[in-house]
Protein backbone atom coordinates (compact mmCIF):
# COMPACT_ATOMS: atom_id res chain seq x y z
CA UNK A 1 0.00 0.00 0.00
CA UNK A 2 1.27 3.50 -0.70
CA UNK A 3 0.01 7.06 -0.48
CA UNK A 4 1.00 9.32 -3.32
CA UNK A 5 1.34 13.02 -2.85
CA UNK A 6 1.35 14.95 -6.10
CA UNK A 7 3.14 18.24 -6.09
CA UNK A 8 6.45 19.82 -6.81
CA UNK A 9 8.26 16.66 -5.72
CA UNK A 10 6.40 13.42 -6.05
CA UNK A 11 6.57 11.52 -2.79
CA UNK A 12 5.59 7.91 -2.37
CA UNK A 13 5.15 6.62 1.15
CA UNK A 14 5.56 2.87 1.48
CA UNK A 15 3.17 1.48 4.08
CA UNK A 16 4.05 -2.03 5.29
CA UNK A 17 1.42 -4.75 5.55
CA UNK A 18 0.42 -5.03 9.19
CA UNK A 19 -0.90 -8.19 10.80
CA UNK A 20 -1.85 -7.03 14.30
CA UNK A 21 -2.98 -3.48 13.68
CA UNK A 22 -4.52 -1.34 10.97
CA UNK A 23 -3.53 2.09 9.75
CA UNK A 24 -5.66 4.59 7.88
CA UNK A 25 -5.58 8.32 7.30
CA UNK A 26 -8.75 10.32 6.86
CA UNK A 27 -8.81 14.09 6.55
CA UNK A 28 -5.47 14.51 8.28
CA UNK A 29 -6.25 12.12 11.14
CA UNK A 30 -4.17 8.94 11.31
CA UNK A 31 -5.98 6.10 12.98
CA UNK A 32 -4.01 3.17 14.40
CA UNK A 33 -6.24 0.34 15.59
CA UNK A 34 -4.75 -2.55 17.58
CA UNK A 35 -6.29 -5.73 16.18
CA UNK A 36 -5.74 -8.76 18.41
CA UNK A 37 -9.23 -8.76 19.94
CA UNK A 38 -9.02 -12.48 20.79
CA UNK A 39 -6.26 -11.56 23.29
CA UNK A 40 -7.81 -8.19 24.25
CA UNK A 41 -5.11 -6.52 22.10
CA UNK A 42 -2.34 -7.73 24.40
CA UNK A 43 0.94 -6.17 23.32
CA UNK A 44 2.98 -9.05 21.95
CA UNK A 45 6.50 -8.34 20.71
CA UNK A 46 5.21 -8.60 17.12
CA UNK A 47 2.53 -6.02 17.87
CA UNK A 48 5.08 -3.75 19.55
CA UNK A 49 7.28 -4.08 16.47
CA UNK A 50 4.37 -3.09 14.24
CA UNK A 51 3.63 -0.14 16.52
CA UNK A 52 7.21 1.01 15.98
CA UNK A 53 6.78 0.66 12.21
CA UNK A 54 3.47 2.47 12.09
CA UNK A 55 4.92 5.27 14.21
CA UNK A 56 7.67 5.70 11.61
CA UNK A 57 5.00 5.81 8.88
CA UNK A 58 3.10 8.51 10.79
CA UNK A 59 6.35 10.42 11.18
CA UNK A 60 6.92 10.39 7.44
CA UNK A 61 3.35 10.89 6.24
CA UNK A 62 2.95 14.60 5.41
CA UNK A 63 -0.85 14.20 5.34
CA UNK A 64 -1.06 13.36 9.05
CA UNK A 65 -1.85 16.21 11.45
CA UNK A 66 -3.08 14.26 14.50
CA UNK A 67 -2.71 10.55 15.33
CA UNK A 68 -5.26 8.50 17.25
CA UNK A 69 -4.46 5.11 18.78
CA UNK A 70 -7.34 2.78 19.66
CA UNK A 71 -8.22 -0.91 20.00
CA UNK A 72 -10.66 -3.27 18.30
CA UNK A 73 -13.29 -4.95 20.48
CA UNK A 74 -13.80 -4.54 24.21
CA UNK A 75 -10.22 -3.54 25.07
CA UNK A 76 -7.86 -0.73 24.20
CA UNK A 77 -5.09 -3.13 25.30
CA UNK A 78 -5.04 -5.49 28.30
CA UNK A 79 -1.30 -5.14 28.80
CA UNK A 80 1.86 -6.85 27.72
CA UNK A 81 1.28 -10.37 26.41
CA UNK A 82 1.29 -12.56 29.53
CA UNK A 83 2.09 -15.69 27.49
CA UNK A 84 5.30 -14.02 26.35
CA UNK A 85 6.04 -12.74 29.85
CA UNK A 86 5.63 -16.29 31.17
CA UNK A 87 8.29 -17.44 28.68
CA UNK A 88 10.92 -14.88 29.74
CA UNK A 89 13.77 -17.03 31.02
CA UNK A 90 15.91 -14.65 33.03
CA UNK A 91 16.11 -11.05 34.26
CA UNK A 92 18.20 -10.05 31.24
CA UNK A 93 15.51 -11.16 28.80
CA UNK A 94 12.88 -9.44 30.93
CA UNK A 95 14.93 -6.25 30.92
CA UNK A 96 15.21 -6.39 27.12
CA UNK A 97 11.45 -6.89 26.95
CA UNK A 98 10.86 -3.78 29.07
CA UNK A 99 13.35 -1.83 26.97
CA UNK A 100 11.53 -2.82 23.77
CA UNK A 101 8.20 -1.50 25.07
CA UNK A 102 9.86 1.62 26.46
CA UNK A 103 11.60 2.33 23.18
CA UNK A 104 8.46 1.94 21.07
CA UNK A 105 6.44 4.13 23.43
CA UNK A 106 9.25 6.72 23.49
CA UNK A 107 8.99 6.89 19.69
CA UNK A 108 5.24 7.46 19.95
CA UNK A 109 5.79 10.12 22.63
CA UNK A 110 8.33 11.85 20.39
CA UNK A 111 6.02 12.19 17.36
CA UNK A 112 6.07 15.87 16.39
CA UNK A 113 2.27 16.13 16.28
CA UNK A 114 -0.57 15.71 18.77
CA UNK A 115 -1.44 12.10 19.63
CA UNK A 116 -4.62 10.85 21.30
CA UNK A 117 -5.39 7.48 22.89
CA UNK A 118 -9.06 6.61 22.32
CA UNK A 119 -9.61 4.21 25.23
CA UNK A 120 -12.59 2.13 24.19
CA UNK A 121 -12.40 -0.46 27.02
CA UNK A 122 -9.68 -2.03 29.18
CA UNK A 123 -6.39 -0.11 29.28
CA UNK A 124 -4.33 -2.16 31.71
CA UNK A 125 -0.62 -2.51 32.34
CA UNK A 126 1.26 -1.98 29.08
CA UNK A 127 -2.05 -0.89 27.53
CA UNK A 128 -2.33 2.04 29.92
CA UNK A 129 1.38 2.72 29.42
CA UNK A 130 0.72 3.04 25.67
CA UNK A 131 -2.07 5.51 26.43
CA UNK A 132 0.31 7.41 28.73
CA UNK A 133 2.79 7.77 25.87
CA UNK A 134 0.11 9.66 23.93
CA UNK A 135 -0.39 13.37 24.57
CA UNK A 136 -4.10 13.12 25.38
CA UNK A 137 -6.47 10.37 26.50
CA UNK A 138 -10.18 10.09 25.75
CA UNK A 139 -12.17 7.26 27.35
CA UNK A 140 -15.57 5.71 26.77
CA UNK A 141 -17.82 5.50 29.84
CA UNK A 142 -17.23 1.77 30.34
CA UNK A 143 -13.43 1.98 30.06
CA UNK A 144 -11.33 0.53 32.87
CA UNK A 145 -7.80 1.73 33.47
CA UNK A 146 -5.08 0.39 35.75
CA UNK A 147 -1.58 -0.84 36.33
CA UNK A 148 -2.12 -4.34 37.80
CA UNK A 149 1.49 -5.52 37.46
CA UNK A 150 2.28 -5.89 41.18
CA UNK A 151 -0.53 -8.46 41.36
CA UNK A 152 1.55 -10.53 38.97
CA UNK A 153 4.78 -10.04 40.91
CA UNK A 154 5.93 -7.50 38.34
CA UNK A 155 6.18 -3.74 38.16
CA UNK A 156 5.01 -1.50 35.32
CA UNK A 157 7.87 -1.72 32.82
CA UNK A 158 6.78 0.16 29.70
CA UNK A 159 7.11 3.62 31.28
CA UNK A 160 4.26 3.50 33.80
CA UNK A 161 6.32 4.20 36.93
CA UNK A 162 7.63 7.36 35.25
CA UNK A 163 4.84 8.73 33.05
CA UNK A 164 1.96 8.14 35.49
CA UNK A 165 3.44 10.18 38.42
CA UNK A 166 4.48 12.92 36.00
CA UNK A 167 0.90 13.09 34.75
CA UNK A 168 -1.18 12.76 37.94
CA UNK A 169 1.34 13.22 40.80
CA UNK A 170 3.28 10.74 42.89
CA UNK A 171 0.66 9.97 45.54
CA UNK A 172 -2.14 9.26 43.13
CA UNK A 173 0.16 7.24 40.87
CA UNK A 174 1.37 5.09 43.76
CA UNK A 175 -2.24 4.47 44.82
CA UNK A 176 -2.90 2.95 41.39
CA UNK A 177 0.47 1.15 41.22
CA UNK A 178 0.30 -0.33 44.77
CA UNK A 179 -3.34 -1.45 44.60
CA UNK A 180 -3.35 -2.45 40.92
CA UNK A 181 -7.04 -1.56 40.97
CA UNK A 182 -9.08 -0.78 37.86
CA UNK A 183 -10.39 2.78 37.84
CA UNK A 184 -13.53 3.81 35.98
CA UNK A 185 -13.50 6.43 33.24
CA UNK A 186 -15.18 8.90 35.62
CA UNK A 187 -12.52 8.41 38.29
CA UNK A 188 -9.79 8.58 35.64
CA UNK A 189 -11.23 11.93 34.58
CA UNK A 190 -11.18 13.27 38.14
CA UNK A 191 -7.57 12.05 38.55
CA UNK A 192 -6.51 13.86 35.38
CA UNK A 193 -5.59 10.49 33.90
CA UNK A 194 -7.94 11.06 30.96
CA UNK A 195 -8.86 14.38 29.37
CA UNK A 196 -12.38 13.56 28.24
CA UNK A 197 -15.05 10.89 28.67
CA UNK A 198 -17.77 10.23 26.09
CA UNK A 199 -20.20 7.60 24.83
CA UNK A 200 -17.84 6.56 22.06
CA UNK A 201 -14.12 7.05 22.71
CA UNK A 202 -13.15 7.14 19.05
CA UNK A 203 -15.82 9.65 18.04
CA UNK A 204 -14.87 11.83 21.01
CA UNK A 205 -11.18 11.56 20.07
CA UNK A 206 -11.94 12.54 16.46
CA UNK A 207 -13.92 15.54 17.69
CA UNK A 208 -10.96 16.60 19.81
CA UNK A 209 -8.57 16.02 16.88
CA UNK A 210 -10.67 18.25 14.61
CA UNK A 211 -10.65 21.00 17.22
CA UNK A 212 -6.85 20.76 17.53
CA UNK A 213 -6.44 20.75 13.74
CA UNK A 214 -7.97 24.20 13.45
CA UNK A 215 -4.66 25.47 14.82
CA UNK A 216 -1.32 25.97 13.09
CA UNK A 217 0.54 22.63 12.65
CA UNK A 218 4.05 23.96 13.24
CA UNK A 219 2.87 25.83 16.33
CA UNK A 220 1.34 22.59 17.64
CA UNK A 221 4.61 20.73 17.10
CA UNK A 222 6.63 23.50 18.75
CA UNK A 223 4.24 23.75 21.72
CA UNK A 224 4.56 19.99 22.26
CA UNK A 225 8.34 20.19 21.94
CA UNK A 226 8.48 22.98 24.51
CA UNK A 227 6.40 21.04 27.03
CA UNK A 228 8.30 17.78 26.50
CA UNK A 229 11.82 19.23 26.50
CA UNK A 230 11.10 21.43 29.49
CA UNK A 231 9.87 18.57 31.65
CA UNK A 232 13.23 17.34 32.88
CA UNK A 233 14.83 20.78 33.24
CA UNK A 234 14.84 23.51 35.84
CA UNK A 235 12.48 26.40 35.20
CA UNK A 236 15.08 28.90 33.95
CA UNK A 237 16.48 26.49 31.34
CA UNK A 238 13.01 25.39 30.29
CA UNK A 239 11.90 28.99 29.84
CA UNK A 240 14.88 29.60 27.55
CA UNK A 241 13.72 26.72 25.37
CA UNK A 242 10.22 28.18 25.34
CA UNK A 243 11.58 31.54 24.18
CA UNK A 244 13.65 29.90 21.40
CA UNK A 245 10.67 27.93 20.16
CA UNK A 246 8.44 31.00 20.36
CA UNK A 247 11.03 32.60 18.08
CA UNK A 248 10.77 29.73 15.58
CA UNK A 249 6.98 29.91 15.64
CA UNK A 250 7.09 33.65 14.94
CA UNK A 251 9.10 33.00 11.77
CA UNK A 252 6.42 30.83 10.11
CA UNK A 253 4.09 31.83 7.29
CA UNK A 254 1.27 30.48 9.43
CA UNK A 255 2.06 33.04 12.13
CA UNK A 256 1.67 35.84 9.60
CA UNK A 257 -1.55 34.26 8.33
CA UNK A 258 -2.91 33.76 11.87
CA UNK A 259 -2.36 37.37 12.85
CA UNK A 260 -3.59 38.70 9.48
CA UNK A 261 -6.75 36.59 9.75
CA UNK A 262 -7.41 37.92 13.24
CA UNK A 263 -7.07 41.53 12.09
CA UNK A 264 -9.25 40.85 9.03
CA UNK A 265 -11.87 39.16 11.25
CA UNK A 266 -11.82 35.86 9.33
CA UNK A 267 -10.81 32.25 9.98
CA UNK A 268 -7.11 31.56 9.29
CA UNK A 269 -6.03 29.28 6.48
CA UNK A 270 -2.97 27.53 7.86
CA UNK A 271 -0.64 25.71 5.47
CA UNK A 272 1.93 24.26 7.85
CA UNK A 273 4.62 26.58 6.51
C1 LIG B 1 5.47 -4.05 31.19
C2 LIG B 1 4.05 -4.38 31.09
C3 LIG B 1 3.54 -5.44 31.84
C4 LIG B 1 2.12 -5.81 31.71
O1 LIG B 1 1.37 -5.17 31.00
S1 LIG B 1 1.62 -7.18 32.57
C5 LIG B 1 -0.06 -7.41 32.09
C6 LIG B 1 -0.98 -6.48 32.78
N1 LIG B 1 -2.35 -6.77 32.40
C7 LIG B 1 -3.15 -7.58 33.10
O2 LIG B 1 -2.77 -8.14 34.12
C8 LIG B 1 -4.55 -7.78 32.58
C9 LIG B 1 -4.77 -9.22 32.20
N2 LIG B 1 -6.15 -9.46 31.75
C10 LIG B 1 -7.20 -9.48 32.58
O3 LIG B 1 -7.10 -9.25 33.76
C11 LIG B 1 -8.54 -9.83 31.99
O4 LIG B 1 -8.34 -10.37 30.73
C12 LIG B 1 -9.49 -8.62 31.85
C13 LIG B 1 -9.92 -8.12 33.23
C14 LIG B 1 -8.84 -7.49 31.06
C15 LIG B 1 -10.76 -9.08 31.05
O5 LIG B 1 -11.32 -10.21 31.65
P1 LIG B 1 -12.40 -11.07 30.80
O6 LIG B 1 -13.42 -10.20 30.22
O7 LIG B 1 -12.84 -12.19 31.73
O8 LIG B 1 -11.58 -11.68 29.56
P2 LIG B 1 -10.52 -12.88 29.59
O9 LIG B 1 -11.23 -14.17 29.36
O10 LIG B 1 -9.65 -12.78 30.78
O11 LIG B 1 -9.62 -12.50 28.30
C16 LIG B 1 -10.01 -12.85 26.97
C17 LIG B 1 -8.80 -13.50 26.31
O12 LIG B 1 -7.74 -12.53 26.28
C18 LIG B 1 -6.59 -13.08 26.89
N3 LIG B 1 -5.82 -12.03 27.55
C19 LIG B 1 -6.29 -11.01 28.30
N4 LIG B 1 -5.30 -10.24 28.75
C20 LIG B 1 -4.15 -10.77 28.25
C21 LIG B 1 -2.78 -10.43 28.36
N5 LIG B 1 -2.36 -9.33 29.04
N6 LIG B 1 -1.88 -11.21 27.73
C22 LIG B 1 -2.26 -12.29 27.01
N7 LIG B 1 -3.56 -12.65 26.87
C23 LIG B 1 -4.49 -11.91 27.49
C24 LIG B 1 -7.13 -14.08 27.89
O13 LIG B 1 -6.13 -15.03 28.21
C25 LIG B 1 -8.27 -14.68 27.13
O14 LIG B 1 -7.76 -15.62 26.21
P3 LIG B 1 -8.45 -17.09 26.07
O15 LIG B 1 -9.80 -16.80 25.51
O16 LIG B 1 -7.54 -17.80 25.11
O17 LIG B 1 -8.48 -17.69 27.41
Q: Summarize this, please?
A:
The chain is built from 11 helices and 12 strands. By secondary structure, it is an alpha/beta fold.
Shape field? globular
Q: Are any ligands bound, and if so which?
A: ligand A1D88
Q: What share of the residues lie within helices?
A: 40-55%
* N/C terminus separation: 28 Å
Strand content: 15-25%
Q: Which series of helices and strands comes N to C?
A: EEEEHEEHHEEHEEHHEHEHHHH
Low-confidence stretches: none
What is the structural class?
A: alpha/beta
Number of extended strands: 12
Major sheet size, sense and barrel closure: 6 strands, mixed
Largest beta sheet: what is the strand line-up? 3-4-5-7-9-12
Report the mean per-residue pLDDT as an integer: 96
Task: Determine the number of helices (DSSP H or I, runs of at least 4 residues).
Answer: 11
